[in-house]
Structures are given as structure tokens and as C-alpha cells.
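User: Teach me something about this protein's shape.
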Amino acid sequence: MNITGTARHAGVTVEVAPGGALRTLELTADALRTGGPRLADTILHAVREAAAEANERARRALETELGDLGGTELSSLGLGSEKDLADRAEDTTPDTWRV
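Assistant: First, the predicted structure itself:
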């Protein structure tokens, strides 16, 4: 199973693995024209959002396979939930992963 999260903002598209490891990064010409500091902020925002999505998907997959491990154990794996960003991931979670 290949679990990832994707986010798009202002010409920046990222795909990350659970924990936030960057898998792909795409920048449009418009994104590049925004300048270094703004581009960096946009990339970091997109990575954070995509990581929350990937983490939520991984957390749900683990809970489905291993039962409810509780927040502490999953957080120690780097799969804690950021509520504001995890809500977006909930909308993309396949029904077959729902408990």
C-alpha cells in the first residue's frame, strides 16, 4: 500500500509520505515569480497540509489493521493528528478505510 498526501497552493504541488518526507515537488512559472521568501512559505504550507493528509491516512490504515492503538502510540510514530489539517484528509479517506 502506497500512502501519500498531496496539496496544491499558488502554483506549488507537493506529494509527501507519512511523516512529511517529500516525494514530489512541482512549481509553476507563476510560483517562481513570487520570490524566494514567499515561495518558501508556500512550499512549507503545502508540505504541512500534505503531511497531515498522509499521516491521517496512515493512522487510519494502522488502526484498521491493528485495532485502536491510542493517540500516544501513533504519535510516537510521527502520526499525530493536526485537527485543522486532518479534517481535509478525512474528506479524501476511502470508505474502505473508515472504521
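Now, about its shape. The first strand starts at residue 5 and ends at 9. The chain has one domain: 5-97. If you'd like, I can walk through any region in more detail.
User: That's plenty for now, thanks!
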